[in-house]
Structure formats: C-alpha cells, structure tokens
C-alpha cells in the first residue's frame, strides 16, 4: 500500500506526534505501516477526498466509523456503545465549526489584490530577513520592487536588490501597491542603509583612485574601490566593498566618468593596436602597483633590486 510519496508538513507533524504518544512503540520504523494507513485515510482540503477514495474509489472501514448498533442483553454495553458514537459525532461537529470560525476571521484580513508585470510594489521583509533591531525600529515594508512574473494564483516574483538575501517569490499577503508622490519625488525617501547592508559611514570620501574585482574560490566575485577618506593622505587609501559605499554613489559616478574621460584622452593620436588589452590580470597588477606610484617609486622594489643585481 503506497498511494503518496511525501505527506505535507502539517500532516507529517501530526503523524510524528501520534507515534510519539504511543506507549507500545519501541521504534518509529515498526509503526511505519500504521502511519501510512492513517495518512491515506485523511481527506484533503483541495479534493475533499482521501488517497484511498481517489485510488480505489472507496474509504476503508475503521473501528470508529463502523456503526455501533449493539443489541445484546447487557444494557451497560449498549449505553457505552451509544455514548462512544455520540462523542465521535460531537467531536467531528466541533472540528467543523472551529474550521469555519477560523476561516471567517482569516478572510476578514485578506485582500483581493492583483498586480501586473512591471508594477512597483512594497514587500514585507520583517519576518523574512534577520534584523538585530527591535521590530518597532524597522520598516514593515521595503521597496519599491518591480513585479517580474506571476507565480500561480497567489504569489509574484519580484526583482530584488543584490543586497537582499531572500527568495524572490512572495505571497500576495506580503505585498501592497507602491504609490509614488507626484509633487515631491524625494518625499518619504529613506536615508538609512539599504536592506541587507549593515555598514553606514559618518565620514566623507576625498577621492576614489581605483577599482578591482576580487575572485575567491567558493565565493562570489567582490567589487571593491580604493577609497581615500577625507583628512587622510592618499597613501592610506583602503579597499572598500562597493555595496558598503551606498552613501557615496555620486563619488562613484564621478570616478567612472573621470576615468572614461582620461582613457579617451589617452587614445587620441595613439596607436590603439599597441596598447595592452585590459584583462583581469592587468587590472589586478595595476591595483598592486598603485601603492608604489603613490610613494613616489616608479618601479616595483623587487624589480628594482633584480635589475640592480643584473647590472
């Protein structure tokens, strides 16, 4: 007898709890057949049928489902059988009433909301992402995010930022439409760190001198910028992750624009075919050579010593 391969999480917990309360169970493996039989008896909310009814077309008889029409001469046995049947029917009626009452209160908070592909929505991430702060100090909804696709009838796939380490499919109950202020576009704009970024700087950037991509085995490539903080010399510049520099997007844009202008000026009147191609190896080598140029050394000290020994 094997009608289903894997029960739902709720049914699995119910079977596990029932087996743990059995005083005769020395091993859960010994009661696997009984547990499977019990699961195949349960009716699904979607089909209103049990696996037995779907596969065989009938529901097996169990002791609590058989009519207890005792007609013997013992009145005590007759009364016991009658009360047993009445208690069973009363329990079923109470469970049905409780289910209807729970559905009634749950439906009062449900909203019939539909989104189209391309719409901007706000997502509730407070119960998904871990946050060290109290829930009263954290925004309930984050965004806006663009709707990419509808998944099923009650979920949507969103375009999340790379800093948000969460699944990109959300139930409709965790979403609400985003309404942008038409008069002041910056009204309500948060100046705190984006979701997933814990770093916030209170100092200013003097200049950005270089960028690089760090590759490590087993990790994603890490994009970094060589930052000179205000009040420090250029020789004390340090590499900062690009995700932590969310407050200084204007400085990053200024660095890229100035570098593009500098490269275009260098190419004027130059034989482009003689230039060394910009590869990952050359970029990393340029980043390593940067401190020597800052300190006034035109050559790498190792290369300088080697050339001196050769002469």
From TrEMBL:
<protein>
    <submittedName>
        <fullName>Molybdopterin biosynthesis protein CNX1-like</fullName>
    </submittedName>
</protein>
<dbReference type="Pfam" id="PF24626">
    <property type="entry name" value="SH3_Tf2-1"/>
</dbReference>
<dbReference type="InterPro" id="IPR023780">
    <property type="entry name" value="Chromo_domain"/>
</dbReference>
<dbReference type="InterPro" id="IPR056924">
    <property type="entry name" value="SH3_Tf2-1"/>
</dbReference>
<feature type="domain" description="Chromo">
    <location>
        <begin position="208"/>
        <end position="267"/>
    </location>
</feature>
<dbReference type="InterPro" id="IPR016197">
    <property type="entry name" value="Chromo-like_dom_sf"/>
</dbReference>
<dbReference type="Pfam" id="PF00385">
    <property type="entry name" value="Chromo"/>
</dbReference>
<dbReference type="InterPro" id="IPR000953">
    <property type="entry name" value="Chromo/chromo_shadow_dom"/>
</dbReference>
